[in-house]
Please model this.
Amino acid sequence: MNNKIFLLMGLPGTGKSTTSRVIQEIIDKDNCILINSDITRDNFVEKKYFELNKTKKGSVKQRTYELMFAQAKDFFSKGKSVIIDAMFHEQSTRDLALKYLGKNNCIMLKIICSDEKLLEKRIEKRRSEGKDSSTAGFDIYLQFKPQWEKIIGNKITIDSKYDIKNQINMLLEKL
Model:
């Protein structure tokens, strides 16, 4: 498989980060870079980026996506596959990613969990164990659910209710 950019999108708690780590493990950690929006925002945008760019306009969300896209483009140009783990709930952000990174270089993966009771249990378990880089609880999932914009363009849907590793292996065999 040639290097690719995987845009993993979905509502909070649906399994984007877990799926990202599985893809990275299957492809090869040395040749696949994982860029997570929560980590990017918390470690670079909110703390460092504002200090360095006080005059630059734009929201935290906008700056986070800009930084992730720039990082992805750089790693991709060096022959690495890249996974961007972010909500991407607005079509305009997806369009920007495809334009900036090259539509033919990107694979859009929508991560869902078709069992909301299971989803709620998973989110609460991860939060109580401190195993989640996201601060989003089930309440945030419910808040963003009606804001999710329909995906225009080709996408592959992965349901985290089922075994993710098997779904990813089947997907990568097709690429």
About this structure: Strands lie at 5-9, 32-36, 81-85, 106-112, 156-159. The chain has one domain: 5-174. Helices lie at 16-27, 37-52, 60-77, 91-101, 116-129, 138-144, 164-174.
